[in-house]
Amino acid sequence: MGLEAYKGVYVFAQQVDNVLSGIAFELLGKAKDLAKDLSTDVTAVLIGSGVKDLADQLAEYGADKVIVVDDPELKEYRTEPYTHALASVINEYKPEIMLVGATAIGRDLGPRVSARVKTGLTADCTVLEIGDFPLNPVPGKENEQKHNQLLMTRPAFGGNTIATIACPDNRPQMATVRPGVMQKIDPIKGAKANVVEYNPGFTPNDKYVEILNVVKAVKETEDIMEAKILVSGGRGVGSAENFKMLQDLADVIGGTVSCSRAVVENGWKPVDLQVGQTGKTVRPNVYFAIGISGAIQHVAGMEEADIIIAINKDEDAPIFDVADYGVVGDLHKVVPALTEALKAEMT
Ligand code: FAD
C-alpha cells in the first residue's frame, strides 16, 4: 500500500488507573501544530478498561477524534495486550504520524509497536516539525527530496550533537517525547471529539506476564516538573548540608529545590530532583541556577524556563549564555543576602 494512504497525526493517550497522564495533553498540543502544517486532524488513541469517559478531556486538549480500545485485559499496562491494541489501531486506521510519551510505559510500548507495524521510531525527541528531507539534497538530486516529512530532532552521542532524523520510506513516522518537552494548549472547555470504539479482540493470556500485586511507590520528593519556581543547586553548592541555604531561599519565594546531576552523583540529593537530559525537563516561570556550570546536558532540561537567574563565581561559566539575569559571585554570600533581601521585601 502506498504511503499516501496514511493520514492524520495520532497520539497515544497514556492513562494510569483511569487518570490521563500529563504527557497525553502535551503530545496533543504538539500534534495540533503538526496537523495544522499537514492540513489534517489529530486523533488520540485511548487504551484501557472503562476509559471511554476520558475522551472529553482529550477533546478539550486538542483531539478531533478519539479511538477507544476498551477491554478488561487492558486494565493495567502489560506489554503484550497494549502492543496488540496500538499496533491493531495503526494497521486499521493508518496514521501518518504516531506520537508516544517517553515514559516508562511509552518506552516499553513504542519500540515494540514500531517493530510490529514495521516502521522506524526516533526516541526522546526534543523538537518535532514538518519539513523537507533530506534537509540539504545532493546537487542534481533535488527532485528526490521528499516534502511534508516529520523531522525528528534529538540529542545524540551523549548530548554532544543534535541529530535530525526522518522516516521517509515507512509509515507511520513514530517518535517518543519525554514529559515536559512539549506544551499543552489551554483547554477548550466543552470541546467534543468524534469518539470511535475499536476492539481488535483479546484472548485472556497470562502466558507472558501475570500481575499478582501492584505496590505503589510513595513519593518523598516534590514534583519539580510542576513547580513554578525552582531553586536549583549544582556541585558548586559544596555539600548536602549547604543545600539548606537553597531551601531557605525556596521557602521565602514559594519555590522548590532541584539540582544538577553532579549533585545526585555526590549523593547530596535524590535523582527525582535532577534536571537535565537524563533527569527531568522543567519549564518553571523562574529557574535559579546556583553553582551550576551550564553543561549542555543540564541546559537541555531547563532552557525553556521563562526566566533564568544564574549565580556563579566564574564569569565565563556557560550558564550565563542562557541566563536572563546573572550574578558573578560566591554563592555562600550571594544566596543568604538574596534570601534576606527577599524576606524583607515580602514582610
Ligand atoms: P560543575 O560542572 O562542576 O559546575 C559547578 C559550578 O559551580 C562551576 O561553574 C563553578 O564555577 C561553580 N561554583 C563553584 N563554587 C562556587 C561558589 N562558591 N559560588 C558560586 N559558584 C561556584 N547533568 C545534569 O545536570 N543533568 C543531566 O540530566 C545530565 N545528563 C547527562 C547525560 C550524559 C550522557 C552525560 C555525559 C552527562 C550528563 N550530565 C548531566 C552531566 C553534565 O555533563 C555535567 O557534568 C553536570 O551538569 C555538571 O554539574 P554542575 O554544573 O553541578 O557541576
Model description:
It comes from Petralouisia muris. This is Electron transfer flavoprotein subunit alpha/FixB family protein. This protein has 347 residues and is α/β, with parallel strands linked by helices. Helices cover 26% and strands 25% of the residues. The protein has helices spanning 22-38, 55-60, 79-93, 104-116, 243-253, 261-265, 296-299, 319-322, 331-346, and strands at residues 9-12, 15-16, 19-20, 42-48, 65-70, 97-101, 121-125, 127-133, 146-156, 161-165, 173-177, 194-197, 229-233, 256-259, 286-290, 307-312, 325-328. The strands form 4 sheets. A 7-stranded parallel sheet has the order 7-11-6-1-4-5-12, with helices on both faces. Strands 14-13-15-16-17 form a 5-stranded parallel sheet. Strands 8-9-10 form a 3-stranded antiparallel sheet. Strand 4, helix 2 and strand 5 (65-70) form a beta-alpha-beta unit. Helix 5 (243-253) packs parallel to helix 9 (331-346). The protein starts with 8 loop residues before the first strand and ends with a helix. Bound molecules: flavin-adenine dinucleotide. Flavin-adenine dinucleotide binds at residues 158-159, 234-236, 260-263, 274-279, 291-293, 295, 297-298, 301, 312-314, 317, 330-332.
